[in-house]
Amino acid sequence: MHTHSFAAQVERALGIAADELTATGNPGAAFAHAIVRAIPQAQHFTMPAGGRLFDDGLRGLDTDLHAIHLPYPIITLSFADGDRRTLVVAQELQEAGQNTIVVQVAVDTGDGQGWGFFPCSAQPEKRHDDGSIVWSCFDAIGSRLDRTPMHEAVMAAGRSVLELVEALSCNNVASEIVERVDPAVNARRRRQGKLPRYEVRRLVVKVGEQVHAIGAPVGDRNGPREHLRRGHVRRLPDGRRTWVQCCVVGSRALGVVRKTYAVEVG
């Protein structure tokens, strides 16, 4: 199932943290400030549990990572994995004449400490044939960092950005706004000291004439259907890409039928 966006919570929590870190001269303040500045400018997406969509080695992506573009200049992705909650902020930048995607990550581990952030940024630099991505991490002044478990966590969260881009490269996948937000209402909420409400997008896939939210269960109480979270991309002879999603259908009391169906523009 999709989760709600954590963007507003992170904006407030890291705004406070950024001021405290700045007051003590902590260089990590730069990352907190960057996340806080990016959130109001971003388009916000929710993702299935764990932030994963595919098990296909990112084969739907261009092999040249510098040719990959985000759906919007700045995006956030919210997803949960048990008690752990993650917000990924991704921005598309130009560096040395090349397009690059820069990722920063905030996380609430569910231990009662609230929202924190990783004091680094990550960029995907190279893709291997098996779909694995070589990432580089940088500190506040742009120096390359050696890989540590912290950086591995940032890279793992950053992969969700690439899977989102891969999904949106399919001709039968789009994003839709779950609920429109009136800017005037948001301005009033800010004046009242309340968290803003950001418009949240989710991915939807067309199945014939129907549209389903990716990661959401499909069906009704009389005929429940449980969707698996992940799918893969199939390249069509004409060069288009199509999302193919695996699912489990039927009542578990009566047994289940496993099937894979191709989805296409209706």
In short:
The chain has helices at 7-23, 29-38, 149-168, 183-191, and strands at residues 43-46, 74-81, 84-95, 98-108, 116-117, 121-127, 133-138, 144-145, 173-177, 200-207, 210-213, 218-219, 224-235, 241-249, 257-262. The chain has 266 residues and is of the alpha+beta class.
Notes on the structure:
- By secondary structure, the chain is of the alpha+beta class.
- It has a domain at 7-184.
- 21% of the residues lie in helices and 37% in strands.
- The strands form 3 sheets. Strands 1, 2, 3, 4, 5, 9, 10 and 11 form an 8-stranded mixed β-sheet that branches.
- β14 (241-249) and β15 form a beta hairpin.
- α1 runs antiparallel to α2 (29-38).
- It is globular.
- The model is unreliable at 217-229 and 246-266 (pLDDT under 50).
The string of secondary-structure elements, in order, is: HHEEEEEEEEHEHEEEEEE
Beta-strand content = 35-45%
> How many E-type strands?
15
Structural class: alpha+beta
Give a quick account of the main beta sheet: strands, pairing sense, barrel closure.
Answer: 8 strands, mixed
Separate helix tally: 4
**What's the N-to-C terminus distance?**
24 Å
What's the shape?
Answer: globular
Poorly predicted runs of 5 or more residues: 217-229, 246-266
Radius of gyration: 19 Å
Portion of residues within helices? 10-25%
Overall mean pLDDT? 78
- As an assembly, this protein is single chain
